[in-house]
Amino acid sequence: MMRSVFGASVQGASHIRSGRECQDSLKKLVKDSGSVILAVADGHGSDACPYSKTGSFVAVNVFCKIMGEYLETYAGQQEMLFTFLKREGDTKIAQEIDAEWKRRILRLHAKCKREIPSGEGKNREKEAVYKLYGSTLLGLVITEEFLFAFQLGDGDIVKVSEAGVYNIIEPDKILGTETHSLSKAESWRKAITLIRKREEKESYPVMYMLSSDGLSNSYKNDEEFKKTCRDYYVLLKEHGVKAVSDQLKTWLQETSEMGCGDDITALFAYETRGF
Question: What pLDDT, in 10s, does the model give residues 33-74?
Fold first, then answer.
């Protein structure tokens, strides 16, 4: 089996017009074992969250750091890691991500000597700081034995193969424009995780895609979004990774312009059968 990992972030069409920077971040980490870690985060970008680009940057780095350390700790013991993540993924792992993100945000805020928003007591002051950096987080760990997915807030983690297109995690939809956020108190309670063994007779090629909600929101319904996911899969099969990777930013920018106007990030892992 051969795997290629690539992705891109683009500034949303509406953000270009308003002069607001892209709030999305992505990160990919390929381990010596062949396992990969993918992360995408979407800073909220509202006036109440002026530093959310930093918040999303911290989020993807935290996920890759924490999951990378677990892969190293359990090197050669994937069955034990699978059991641990199945038992602790939505509690201990989510708590670690929550705590590490908040720790880094406080440190960065102090290092930049930014004003501390007024609040009633120390905890309220911290909560006010976190809000300035609000972000969602999507994460996926792919090993030879299993997949581990993490989602806090909106966005999509999708798998595409000859069998079809489906969300690895069904996002917890919130009415309106609100979303779950790392900036909220005990944000880990809103995290959704899933761990699944790889199929012994996996159908190749297979494509995994993490995308911020700017992509799915640019289509009129979920069916149209999944059709686009399928289109990317077909393009990869017919034209290869380099051709798709080279054009990805252009396509995402066009999608934003014709769609919701938001920032868009898409991060792919594409697997083919090796010879």
Answer: 889 999 999 999 888 899 999 999 999 999 999 999 999 999
- Full strand arrangement of the beta sheet holding 192-197: 24-30, 36-42, 137-142, 146-152, 192-197
Q: Cβ–Cβ contacts within 10 Å for residue 52, how many?
A: 28
Question: For residues 57 and 135, what is the distance between their CA atoms, to the nearest angstrom?
Answer: 9
pLDDT of res. 166: 94
Is 70 within 8 Å of 82 (Cβ atoms)?
Answer: no
Domains of the chain: 2-272 (3.60.40.10)
**CA count, 13 A, side-chain hemisphere, 155:** 34
Task: Provide the whole-model pTM.
Answer: 0.94
Share of the chain above pLDDT 70, in %: 95
pLDDT at 175: 43
Q: Residue 127: name the closest of 180, 43, 176, 187 by CA.
A: 187
Task: Please give, one letter per residue, the 3-state secondary structure of 165-211.
Answer: EEECCCCCCCCCCCCCCCCCCCHHHHCEEEEEECCCCCCCCEEEEEE
* pLDDT lower than 50: segments of the chain: 175-176, 275
Burial 67-104 (b: 16+ CB within 10 A, else e): beebbeebeeebeebbebbbeebbeebbbbbbebbbeb
Element (H, E) at 41: strand 36-42
**Is residue 107 classed exposed, middle or buried when 0-12, 13-18 and 19+ CB atoms within 10 A define those classes?**
exposed
